[in-house]
Design a protein that fits this description.
The structure is a homodimer. With about 400 residues, chain A is an alpha/beta fold. The first copy, chain A, is about 40% helix and about 15% strand. Chain A has two domains: about 160 residues, Aspartate Aminotransferase, domain 1 (Alpha-Beta Complex); about 240 residues, 3-Layer(aba) Sandwich (Aspartate Aminotransferase, domain 2). In chain A, strand 3, helix 6 and strand 4 form a beta-alpha-beta unit. Chains A and B meet through helix 1, helix 3, helix 5, helix 6 and helix 9 of A and helix 1, helix 3, helix 5, helix 6 and helix 9 of B.
């Protein structure tokens, strides 16, 4: 039988997948599992979006135009205009989720063997897209003790190679919740200009900022020709299953190449594009987003407050997104999470994402986990109480096992 | 400014895109354009599918499971069971259209620099997927005079190289309408076994067979470990905009690698998966498909009958899909199509896809066009009358221009 490709073997499966069967098994046994492991919001999808889908006038469900339905492109223009950015339709491509936007950005900027610099810990799917596209990742380690902010410019420069074509980062970031400061962005822009790099910024969590202010890479006219924004409605419309994202750039060559990628895959799904357009046509759409962000702010504060009470848990309160990457007083956080799913006594348990899965550098993040505060505050408090109890029992069990 | 990648420059834009602005301009001037250039059916999408979307119970539109919603996987199982193939859920992956299934198949079977053998003329997006994945295509030329059936085994063997990892073909084929005979499939299977090649068969037009019988590659147990089926609901549910396809294989390694690709891009759109499940739950779904196929049979017969009347038009009546690849008495069919959009007099005109765009071998197909019989029979007759008149006028205009 022929062998499958090396690239598909190299592409990492989401590390959390190893643990999922254990969660399923725990639930089969009647256990309640608080899922803080996945960035899947629990907030209901706005009614205007769902109504847009239900009431879409479709007789023949034909291919949407490859760059996106005009209604959806117009909705993106309207959304960005509210943020102060005036985009032409040619600067927008509707993609199949933020996922496809990242894939297109890598395909357009990199040939096989080229490198992308990414601050770690980072969203593990970045590594998957890169492996399938045969793009190499240079991880730039950031640290919990510094709230995962960027290292000094000199340190970043040290990581550049002649094959480095782009810097990719998410801002606000998954999994760390960091929101980069204006000074950090200024530095990245100067660096990208000096070294002639593309700057790919995943801004899907743009609205989820609780301290300070988010600055979009679109605010920098001087980098317009090198900046590519990856965006998605998944998080801010609580519509992860819609698969509607967008790629934005003011570089005409980039857009022409991305449009070619889009032509090849034909189109993004029609109904969800219409749902997005209907959401933007709802005069209350800004309030709906604002209420949701306020809910997440309360969750962040609650979650951080409760985490801070747990002995041995270490973190700096993150400024955005809906994640906290925190340290645990254990040597192997994946083993702890496994134990919580299989051995923790009682009717409830909690699941986090193991930290190591967010690092490309081997050995990093072993004592960390990512918690997604996508549950209501009561559940978050309960999850933290379970975590605290779990840490005590796990440590004791480990000590017993070691005799 | 940094350069975009070589691969995105190499990826061909659909050749028809050069002509589209002319069609738009013709319509702006009030001209009616009969679009026989695109495989977009005009048949209404089945009501059961649309109702399934309208009535979907969704409160939080969360990520669907990466391999597909259980309802959709079950619908695929039910559909294949009707064809006599009993698939486990693990042998099925729901993809974002047949497009994504082809991309995954190439990613899983080929590394950069590897080769795929494809009979030409072929669906031009195959070349796009391959270029972006840095997979090389070896075209295997087939001929109009032979109804685009395969050349002898010896000729195919001559095209294999040590880097050839797979044979990719569509059956029934786009753009030729050929349905491969059992003898041809037997030969391909024997060849794939002997040379240890994957056999990727795009069977999206499986139901569109008017003469003889379609044989799925799934009918060959001996090639089960090397066969990958690409499929989609786009054509048989007249739901191109749904972006619901599927990848099927009985090779566990292939499926594990494809599932990894699926995990990285998260999920296929939810509503359309539910629409497909609702369609399959309609007890009349087989009748709906059968009625549509009967309509296409009449269209094929009408279109071929009318084409046969036009002096200088050459083709062999195709057995399936909804395309005819035919020869025109012109030297440059793209120039003729352009002339029909810009210079043909009167209130109506017709558009086809230029033949050269379906060949990877330079210079091939210059006198050919692909006609998609996706219009009702009255419109097809009218389109053929316009074509006949156009050929006469174009030839005369050309003669005049040459003095």
């Amino acid at each position: 039988m022929p062998n499958i490709s090396a690239r598909s073997q190299a592409a990492p499966a989401s590390p959390i997948r190893r643990l999922y069967p254990l969660a399923v098994e725990a639930k089969r046994k009647g256990k309640r599992v608080y899922h803080l492991n996945i960035g899947q919001p629990d907030i209901p999808t706005p009614e205007a979006f769902l109504r847009g889908i239900r009431e879409a006038k479709v007789e023949v469900l034909d291919y949407a135009p490859s760059p996106g339905r005009p209604e959806a492109i117009h909705a993106v223009q309207a959304y960005y205009a509210e943020l102060g950015f005036h985009l032409t339709p040619q600067e927008i491509l509707i993609t199949i989720g933020g996922s496809e936007a990242i894939t297109f950005a890598l395909m357009v900027t990199c040939d096989p063997g080229d490198r992308v610099l990414i601050p770690e810990p980072f969203y593990p799917n970045y590594l998957g897209y890169a492996r399938l596209a045969n793009v190499e990742i240079t991880p730039l380690t950031t640290f919990r003790s510094e709230g995962f902010h960027l290292p000094p410019r000199r340190e970043i420069e040290r990581h550049l190679t002649p094959n480095t074509k782009a810097i990719l980062l998410s801002n606000p970031a998954n999994p760390t919740g960091v929101v980069y400061t204006e000074a950090e962005l200024d530095m990245l822009v100067a660096l990208a200009l000096q070294y002639d790099l593309f700057l790919i910024v995943d801004e899907v969590y743009r609205e989820f900022v609780y301290d300070g202010k988010h600055k979009s890479i679109l605010s920098y006219p001087e980098i317009a020709g090198q900046a590519i924004v990856v965006d998605s409605i998944s998080k801010r419309l609580s519509a992860c299953g819609a698969r509607i994202g967008m790629l934005i750039s003011r570089n005409k060559e980039v857009m022409a190449a991305a449009q070619k990628c889009a032509t090849i895959r034909l189109s993004a799904p029609t109904f969800e594009q219409l749902g997005f357009a209907a959401f933007m046509a709802d005069p209350n759409h800004r309030d709906i987003i604002a209420r949701m962000i306020e809910e997440y702010r309360v969750r962040r504060d609650t979650f951080c407050e409760e985490l801070a009470k747990i002995p041995g848990v270490t973190f700096r309160k993150p400024e955005g997104a809906f994640y906290v990457m925190f340290g645990l007083p254990v040597q192997d956080s994946e083993d702890f999470i496994r134990w919580m799913l299989t051995d923790f006594p009682g009717p409830e348990t909690v699941m986090f994402a193991p930290g190591a899965g967010f690092y490309a550098t081997p050995g990093k993040g072993q004592d960390e986990v990512r918690g997604a505060y996508v549950l209501n505050t009561e559940d978050l408090r309960r999850a933290c109480a379970i975590l605290a109890e779990g840490l005590t029992l796990y440590t004791a069990a480990l000590a017993r096992a070691r005799g």
